[in-house]
Amino acid sequence: MIDLFGSDRASSSGRAEGRSSHPGRVRRRLSAYRTARREERGERPPPRVAVPSFFTLMNLLCGFLALTQVLESAFGMACWLIVLAGFFDLLDGVMARLTDTDSPFGVQLDSLSDIVSFGVAPSFLIYGYVLSAFNPLGMIVAALPALCGAVRLARYNVTTDDADKESFEGLPIPGQAVAIVALVLAAENSTWGGVLALDSLRVILPVVIVLSGLMVSSIRFDTIPMPSLEYVRAHPKKTALYVLAGVLIVGVQERGLLIVLTVYLLHGVGRAVYQLIEALTTPAPEEYLGTS
Predict the structure, then answer these.
(1) What is the CATH number of the domain that holds 111?
(2) How many domains does the chain have?
(3) C-alpha to C-alpha distance for 176 and 245, rounded to whole angstroms
(4) pLDDT tops 90 at residue 2
(5) Which of the residues 5, 34, 90, 151 has an alpha carbon 20 to 30 A from that of 264?
(6) 47 upstream amide cis, omega within 30 of 0
(7) What average pLDDT score do residues 178-190 get?
């Protein structure tokens, strides 16, 4: 008897074997490609830029979490998350110097994280805490820290190579954010709430405008130095002041934070006013007076 379907079964079996062997061929080719790429690159350690970038991303994460806490009306938690973002921002700078990994990538990532944690988050915080009751003016005023913070970061990025290492031009955006946080935390305290009166537009409006204006001003504010024995030996008085500031913040928390930020702002502004008065009262050199 002739098997009329034998050839069909044979061809079907061949196709099945081909299909079953096809994934195996793909896996072998992929494995060979990976092996060739490893041999081409060689054994390289992970890039050192990943170390400070991790802390930068933790800064960004804290900023995002602060936004979620404002939505939940947990303003105190949002404030401390912004403070924690500032701690990570300080750490990423320290780690970048320790690992010698300052790079354009790190600068851009740091700026993108800062505008969220210290620009958008404080704006959203101050809007949710008090300014939402004064719309539409409240929305405009609340946006100022984010808008001026973006300008401050962009200016820093294009002038960072020429910047004085001892000071910044304009109030650093983390300083503005922590100042707002200190005010909110102090207002949340029952002892200070009635004194600060942050629920009054007459109080909060000038505070936000001044802090935002200081960010885009030409007033110079001191940098926070990297801790080292060389700096301690060169600047013992400044080191003592920084240690005292840390003790105040840890010891009395929101009140210490507010005191430290107030002194920091007054020092920068007071120095600028003194330099202006000195320039106005000092006679100009003869070569600049011109000839009659």
Answers:
(1) 1.20.120.1760
(2) 1
(3) 17
(4) no
(5) 151
(6) no
(7) 81
